[in-house]
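Hey team,

Filing this mostly as a record. A colleague (T.K.) asked me to run one chain through the structure pipeline before their review meeting, and I want the input and output archived in the tracker in case anyone asks later how it was produced. No errors, nothing strange. Just documentation.

Input sequence:
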Amino acid sequence: MINNNPIGVFDSGIGGTSIWSAIHDLLPNEKTIYLADSKNAPYGQKSKDEIVDLSKKNVEFLLENNCKLIVVACNTATTNAIFELRADYDVPFVGIEPAIKPAANNSQTQVIGILATKGTLNSELFNKTAEMFQNTKIIEQVGYGLVQLIEDGNLYSPEMTQLLESYLKPMIEANIDYLVLGCSHYPYLIPQIKKILPDHIKIIDSGEAVARQTKNLLRDKVGFSDMIQNDPVFYVNSDPKVLESILEYKYPVIRKDF
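Output structure:
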């Protein structure tokens, strides 16, 4: 089955490019459209109804651009809106949620840390997943301020370092051996996080798992592209400079109100 329509990817901002990158690496022949709703970032402090409404707006933009499959590259949007999206739109969705399962199943100390947004940690989907691992102590930490600093281009600022240390040191003291990154922005913080965490603590994000699930859905339901090469398209509804820098200026970024 051949389907040359694009894969749509959306996030509350630039963070979902970490998910996009994993998909692009695994499926280089697929055309992708990335949508950064940076004007409304971060989603993590918004109500469930606001997150659902923003997610639907993003989906409708991607469907207008003939996307054959949509990746919700935002933990907050997935955990708060994925059920509504699947109910309302006739297109396959791939969601992203904190990778509690591999962390809990592999933990030797039976203590794991989750760094995520308030919206994700308060969601019904996250809490249902966490309840499955009663024998594992889960240290939850809201990453207040992290997304906004990344969106503002302050990835390596002293304020970022201070926030990360304040969030991670209590987890280290609690004897975690896995840290789960529960926001698609946070993989960009891994170099700094590694400077704070002891070497034995492993970091897990969901990028590769989402890419594999995207490939599975293309194979089973949608169809692969038979194009040799497809240049990705990036849209943002705020200043494109930060997104351009995250992409290392390899691709053009289109500013568009939506």
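Quick notes for T.K.: The chain has a mean pLDDT of 95. Residues 94 and 214 are 6 Å apart (CA to CA).
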